[in-house]
């Protein structure tokens, strides 16, 4: 009887499980191409591209260099602004070249500014005379050509559409209306019904499959003139015309709202923690999105690759922007970055496409990041090595499982590497020459999904353990964390009694030195103790005072490294380290880290 009830219950729950798994997988099916793609091209191209960040001899009036904002920033009248259309060189403009460049760069989708905040459609829109084709007197439709080229080269196509802001439309919104008096909701709705919805309909009807519409409202819609019903009309229209088309969170709704398929972070804002739902960062190569002639601060290829890899390691993607000129040309600086990234991806792409991250601390290792994917029943873990260790040992912490094999990806193919395993550590023996001059990738293959240890403090390059606020497994009274401020190291403010604990793994029995780095303003010193199993080290920490940063008047808090004593670890294994501070009133210890290293 009991058996039958259990069986019935089991069947019931597996049925429920099947139903919910199915609806969840329907959604993830839709967005899967995007979470597999990880890398796409953003193109900011519109009337503003022809201004190039300069208006009547004056540079763009804003420090962020966003040249696509020039009409608003430099207070340009509409009838002057539209004359920029005459600068477009239609003999040279060839959208297929952008697709070819994206393809070479290893990008899997293209997202183009169909209409930016200036309100000018770059396609031959029947809804508004304010479109690039009409203004520049051509019968060409750039989006038609781009859509055809994307189809030809197997590239997904998405449209950026500025829904909230429209500086051209008399009933549209610009920020200045905050002081000049708001237009009424009725007026705004005229813009919405008369321009936004009909233009979206055009975009979703005339250009084949549209992979995503990328909206751009970076504040909560409730603080704007836009109404929830208006956003719902947009979602409904998209679902009706192209059910597979994705919608990003900058529509103005949180990422977990039904209808929103993925989260878009702030401009150039990279991920900070592993996030389960789909997300991406849109990023620039310099500062501006639209072409800006006065820019000269370009990110390096390494930096851009690290942005991509870092996001993938946290389950996110990267949409990297180019700003072509009014003749369609892509700036050389952009091309070189994209070509280099493409060359890297053609060799190391298996560690990016279809990959996600491990749920370890995001800054676990000081040598780079980790990406991973399932392959049949196996799991592949990719170590993304930004810095090739001088001692030729790569120290990985946090995976308890033992890999079947370790291979370095090189120009000549995969090269087997030897490794050792103890506890949460894997030490990989590296050859002299790195696998790549940007980021070297080591692929570890595991027979089964890996077993993680999220708590263990990661070994530093060259060995040794830095026990800090970031990798503490317990912070009993929730001491406040202060990040690195440019001069003072990151620290915790310890101002009441409590303990911090860490889980460490000792892979070789022996004597270990414990040093404590701290700052303390007290008059008399502060007593602390550090313990590991039954051993206890006590110390009185002297006041530290100030240190000169730069002559003659730039001082900051001194942080000193204080040797506290030694621990004898009798055997290999996990140990708990505890820091106890006896803090009397008005005393503060700014705790930076404990450095634990084997005595030679
Ligand atoms: C911002 C800017 C815009 C740019 C966009 C890209 O919201 O307003 O100019 O298109 O971010 O992420």
TrEMBL record:
Pfam families associated with the record: Alpha_L_fucos
Recorded GO MF terms: alpha-L-fucosidase activity
Keywords, alphabetical: Glycosidase, Hydrolase, Signal
Domain Glycoside hydrolase family 29 N-terminal: 24-350
InterPro entries cross-referenced by the UniProt entry: FUC_metazoa-typ (IPR016286), GH (IPR017853), Glyco_hydro_29 (IPR000933), Glyco_hydro_29_N (IPR057739), Glyco_hydro_b (IPR013780)
Family membership noted in the UniProt record: Belongs to the glycosyl hydrolase 29 family.
Described function: Alpha-L-fucosidase is responsible for hydrolyzing the alpha-1,6-linked fucose joined to the reducing-end N-acetylglucosamine of the carbohydrate moieties of glycoproteins.
Protein name from the UniProt record: alpha-L-fucosidase
Lineage summary: Bacteria, Pseudomonadati, Bacteroidota, Sphingobacteriia, Sphingobacteriales
């Amino acid at each position: 009887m009991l058996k039958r009830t259990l069986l019935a219950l089991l069947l019931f729950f597996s049925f429920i499980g099947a139903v919910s798994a199915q609806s969840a997988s329907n959604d993830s099916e839709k967005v899967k191409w995007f979470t597999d793609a990880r890398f796409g091209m953003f193109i900011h191209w519109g009337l503003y591209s022809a201004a190039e960040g300069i208006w009547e001899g004056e540079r763009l009036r804003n420090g962020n260099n966003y040249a696509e904002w020039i009409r608003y920033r430099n207070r340009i009248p509409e009838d002057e602004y539209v004359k920029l259309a005459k600068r477009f060189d239609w003999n040279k403009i060839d959208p297929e070249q952008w697709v070819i460049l994206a393809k070479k760069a290893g990008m899997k989708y293209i997202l183009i500014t169909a209409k930016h905040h200036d309100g000018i459609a770059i396609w031959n829109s029947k809804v508004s005379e304010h479109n690039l084709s009409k203004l520049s007197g051509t019968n060409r439709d750039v989006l038609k050509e781009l859509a055809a080229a994307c189809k030809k080269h197997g590239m997904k196509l998405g449209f950026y559409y500025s829904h909230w802001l429209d500086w051209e439309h008399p009933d549209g919104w610009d920020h200045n209306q905050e002081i000049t008096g708001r237009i009424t909701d009725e007026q705004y709705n005229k813009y919405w019904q008369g321009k936004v919805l009909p233009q979206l309909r055009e975009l979703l009807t005339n250009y084949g499959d549209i992979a995503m519409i990328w909206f751009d409202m970076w504040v909560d819609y409730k603080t704007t003139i836009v109404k929830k019903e208006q956003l719902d009309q947009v979602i409904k229209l998209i679902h009706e015309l192209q059910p597979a088309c994705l919608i990003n969170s900058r529509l103005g709704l949180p990422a977990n709202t039904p209808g929103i398929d993925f989260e878009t972070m702030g401009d150039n804002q990279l991920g900070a923690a592993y996030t389960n739902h789909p997300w991406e960062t849109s990023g620039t190569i310099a500062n501006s999105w639209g072409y800006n002639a006065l820019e000269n601060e370009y990110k390096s290829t390494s930096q851009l690759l690290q942005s991509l890899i870092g996001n993938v390691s946290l389950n996110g993607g990267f949409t990297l922007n180019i700003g072509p000129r009014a003749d369609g040309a892509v700036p050389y600086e952009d091309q070189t970055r994209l070509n280099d990234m493409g060359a890297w991806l053609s060799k190391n792409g298996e560690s990016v496409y279809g990959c996600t991250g491990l749920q370890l601390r995001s800054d676990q290792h000081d040598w780079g990041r980790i990406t991973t994917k399932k392959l049949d029943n196996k799991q592949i873990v990719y170590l993304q090595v930004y810095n090739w260790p001088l001692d030729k040992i790569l120290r990985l912490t946090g995976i308890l499982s033992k890999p079947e094999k370790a291979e370095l990806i090189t120009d000549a193919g995969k090269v087997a590497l030897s490794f050792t395993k103890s506890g949460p550590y894997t030490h990989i023996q590296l050859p002299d020459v790195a696998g790549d001059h940007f980021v070297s990738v080591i692929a570890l293959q595991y027979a089964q999904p890996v077993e993680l240890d999220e708590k263990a403090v990661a070994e530093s390059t060259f060995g040794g353990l830095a026990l800090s606020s970031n990798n503490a497994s317990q912070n009993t009274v929730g001491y406040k964390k202060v990040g690195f401020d440019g001069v003072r190291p990151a620290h915790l403010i310890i101002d009441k009694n409590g303990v911090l604990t860490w889980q460490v793994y000792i892979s070789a029995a022996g004597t270990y030195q414990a040093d404590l780095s701290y700052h303390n303003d007290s008059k008399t010193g502060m007593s602390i103790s550090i313990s590991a199993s039954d051993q206890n080290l006590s110390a009185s920490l002297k006041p530290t005072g100030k240190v000169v940063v730069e002559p003659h008047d730039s001082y900051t808090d001194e942080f000193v490294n204080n040797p506290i004593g030694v621990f004898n670890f009798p055997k290999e294994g996990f140990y708990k380290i505890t820091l106890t501070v006896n803090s009397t009133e008005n005393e503060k210890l700014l705790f930076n880290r404990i450095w634990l290293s084997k005595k030679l």
